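Q: Could you fold this chain for me?
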Amino acid sequence: MVQVRARDLNALAGEISECRACPRLVEWRESVGREKRASFRDDTYWARPVPGFGDPDARVLVVGLAPAAHGGNRTGRVFTGDRSGDFLFASMFRCGFANQPTSAAIDDGLVLRDAYVAAAVRCAPPANKPTPAERDECAPYLHRELELLARVRVIVALGAFGFEAVWRALRASEEFGGELPRRRPRFAHRVEVPCGPLTVLGAFHPSQQNTFTGRLTPEMLDSVFVRAGELV
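A: Sure. Below is the predicted structure, expressed as structure tokens.
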């Protein structure tokens, strides 16, 4: 079954990487890839939609906002090559969900253990702010990942945008739609929402805006992944 899930997730990743559904995002991601940041001028940017990645047998699914313009949009792997990813994967390493604490490139040897990482929107958005319409256009990809990751029992939603995307994915699911609370709880760090066979955990997004100001500390993010480990 693991091999089948891996095959189906790889097929979905190929489909995601070819998507051109949102003109604004297509224009932005490709222009960033042409113009580049000076420090990455010798890099070849991915400049396409970024699929999820990780353990096809994962029991923990992590959902972020979108690839960073000079992170995932450059490297081709979500949360790879930017400071948000450094913060995230360091926590996942400390809590046993990753084999190393950093992720600089798609071939750097990072392996996720019992975890899979995806994003609500698969293209880097201008100002890191996708629109609700772009979120909804991307939603079927998260729905399908959730269906394929049959062993998931915890979803860690990074930020309010990721929390909303997760909620919409669960609501659209035949398996989980009937298990949701009647009213969606408000997003908060460490909010814990039982949804039938799985639990949604909220966490502040590891953006520089949150980590540089101390709104999110390593200990705070670790506490979420420790709890995820307890739940699975």
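A (continued): The chain has eight helices and six strands.
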